[in-house]
């Protein structure tokens, strides 16, 4: 006589359910915007773009020239918390050196 074992039995009324992985929404992105002024040296703006936003010299110069000619320019695009930190750090560096460079964030598209 064999013992009756139901552990591997699969009734037709049983159903397999596939659980989908939840889709994670991408965080809203923010542009870190630098504004032109008449006092902050161009070299300082380039230095901030390189040190805080990891731009190459050529990229930093192009962004600085855009800021100079158009009144403002985007230093980078990040999730909100990172953008806020980068703007605050950039403003802090400028104040430490006595420059009025203004860096703010705004929603990116």
TrEMBL record:
InterPro entries: ClpS, ClpS_core, Ribosomal_bL12_C/ClpS-like. The keyword Lipid metabolism does not apply. Residues 26-102 form the Adaptor protein ClpS core domain. The keyword Coiled coil does not apply. One of its GO terms (molecular function) is peptidase activity. Pfam families: ClpS (PF02617). GO terms for biological process: protein catabolic process; proteolysis. Keywords: Hydrolase, Protease. Belongs to the ClpS family. Involved in the modulation of the specificity of the ClpAP-mediated ATP-dependent protein degradation. PANTHER family: ATP-DEPENDENT CLP PROTEASE ADAPTER PROTEIN CLPS (PTHR33473:SF19), ATP-DEPENDENT CLP PROTEASE ADAPTER PROTEIN CLPS1, CHLOROPLASTIC (PTHR33473). Binds to the N-terminal domain of the chaperone ClpA. This is ATP-dependent Clp protease adapter protein ClpS. It comes from Lwoffella lincolnii. The gene is clpS.
């Amino acid at each position: 006589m064999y013992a009756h074992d139901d552990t591997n039995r699969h009734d037709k009324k049983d159903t397999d359910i596939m659980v989908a992985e939840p889709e994670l929404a991408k965080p809203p992105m923010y542009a870190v915007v630098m504004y032109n002024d008449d006092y902050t040296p161009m070299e300082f703006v380039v230095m901030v773009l390189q040190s805080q936003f990891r731009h190459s010299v050529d990229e930093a110069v192009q962004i600085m020239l855009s800021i100079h000619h158009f009144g403002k320019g985007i230093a980078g695009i990040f999730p909100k918390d990172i953008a806020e930190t980068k703007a605050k750090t950039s403003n802090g560096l400028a104040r430490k050196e006595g420059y009025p460079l203004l860096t703010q964030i705004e929603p990116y598209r």
